[in-house]
Write a structure and sequence with these properties.
The protein is an alpha/beta fold. The chain has helices at 56-70, 84-93, 101-118, 135-142, 157-170, 210-222, 240-246, 253-269, 330-339, and strands spanning 23-26, 47-50, 123-127, 149-154, 175-180, 196-200, 229-235, 278-285, 290-297, 301-305, 310-314, 319-326, 342-349, 355-362. The protein has a domain at 31-239 and 329-362: Rossmann fold (3-Layer(aba) Sandwich). The chain binds S-adenosyl-L-homocysteine and N,N-dimethyl-L-histidine.
């Protein structure tokens, strides 16, 4: 492994738990914390539980890239955007004038934090937590309403452990149990012992296709108890011009974010992608109501992925799909949730009606 910026960094070696093959570790000096996150007073340090097997990234990036580059049309899954550089670029995207979702969701969170705190969660899990920046608005309200444990859950270990460390300083009365894990594989491995609220913010559910969303919700619900809640951020269908601009900003930050996936593959699999020979493109697919991000090959070219023993031909103009970002309306969302066994209780939007935050409860 070369650079220190892959999603799971090597700064902190996981300590394997021999019974599970997983790795509960503490952020300081790698001692085993093994605390019961549901009881007792909070620790001075966060628990950082590494659920990913040590070869997780090697195995899954190989499988994903091998499959994606040999399919027609070619595609890559968005999970590989988020090495340290990708996470930083995403953070810059959230501040761009064209990228409204983060600001809009934050507006709703500020307005509804009291309502959400009234739900009375004792354990609050956030899937794909990233910087947990917006979440602090909720934590401020929830700590006074019985919240005992916050579980940020993300594949990006570097970002997650930095955030977990500052969260324990900011919220001394809260237990922080961070999980380095994949929501497509490790759902339900979080602490038990109280009412759960699972948050999935930012519209990340829209990065899954309909089949993946169905599987994701079914798996999630199978780990929830009646009365547990799902707090879900979803971007809404709107004028395609605004949507395309949000994914193709004037400064080119989204283009760098998209092209970064080629750098990740070059580093991790010894490939020789030349990012200057690809162009970022955002397309609104009306039928599927989603933005599709592509990398278009600018020339006829051959790319070698040494670790996979793979040579891949790209024709000039050939498009490779790197991300979908689905946009919803209330009726469709409510239907999808209800098919999964979740009853929509609240559907809040920002004043402009751009973004929705919903609270649904397992029946
Ligand atoms: N929730 C934050 C961050 C969204 S960016 C916000 O609203 O701003 C998407 C986040 O999901 C990234 O931090 C990325 O590392 C994480 N992520 C992507 N795929 C994941 C997966 N399969 N399992 C866990 N986390 C994932
Ligand atoms: C993380 N996810 C919700 C973002 C989105 O809007 O689909 C990722 C992103 N891709 C380009 N810009 C932002």
């Amino acid at each position: 492994m070369s650079g220190g910026s892959r999603p799971m960094s090597t700064e902190m070696e996981p300590i394997l738990n021999p019974t599970t093959g997983c790795s509960p570790t503490s952020a300081d000096a790698g001692t085993v914390a093994g605390t019961d996150a549901g009881a007792g007073s909070p620790d001075a340090n966060p628990t950082i539980e590494v659920r990913l097997a040590p070869d997780f990234f090697d195995r899954s990036i190989r499988a994903d890239v091998g499959r994606g580059l040999t399919s027609t049309p070619k595609e890559l899954p968005p999970k590989w955007f988020y090495d340290d550089r990708g996470s930083e670029l995403f953070d810059r995207i959230t501040r761009l004038p064209e990228y409204y979702p983060t600001r809009r969701e934050w507006e709703i969170l500020r307005r509804e934090a009291g309502h959400i705190a009234d739900f009375g969660a004792e354990i609050f899990i956030e899937l794909g937590s990233g910087t947990s920046e917006k979440t602090r608005t909720l934590l401020d309200a929830m700590v006074g309403s019985g919240l005992r444990t916050y579980v940020p859950f993300d594949v990006s270990e570097g970002m997650l452990s930095r955030q977990a460390r500052s969260l324990v300083d900011e919220y001394p009365d809260l237990r922080v149990h961070a999980m380095v894990a994949d929501f497509e594989h490790h759902m339900g491995t979080w602490p038990s012992g109280g009412r759960h609220l699972v948050a999935f913010l930012g519209g990340t559910i829209g990065n899954l296709d309909p089949g993946e969303r169905k599987e994701f919700l079914a798996e999630l619900v199978s780990h929830m108890a009646p009365g547990d809640g799902l707090l879900l951020g979803t971007d809404l269908i709107k004028d395609p011009g605004r949507l395309v601009a949000a994914y193709d900003d004037a400064e080119g930050v989204t283009a760098s974010f998209n092209l970064n996936v080629l750098r990740v593959i070059n580093r991790e699999l010894h490939a020789d992608f030349d990012p200057d020979r690809f162009a970022h493109r955002a397309h609104w697919n009306t039928a599927e109501h989603r933005i599709e991000m592509y990398l278009d090959s600018l020339v006829d070219q051959r790319v070698t992925v040494r670790d996979l023993g793979l040579e891949v031909e790209f024709a000039a103009g050939e498009a490779m799909l790197t991300e979908i970002s689905t946009k919803f309306d209330r009726a469709e969302l409510s239907e999808e949730l209800s098919r999964a066994g979740l009853r929509l209780e609240h559907f809040w939007t920002d004043d402009a009606g751009d973004f929705a935050l919903s609270l649904s409860v397992m029946t």
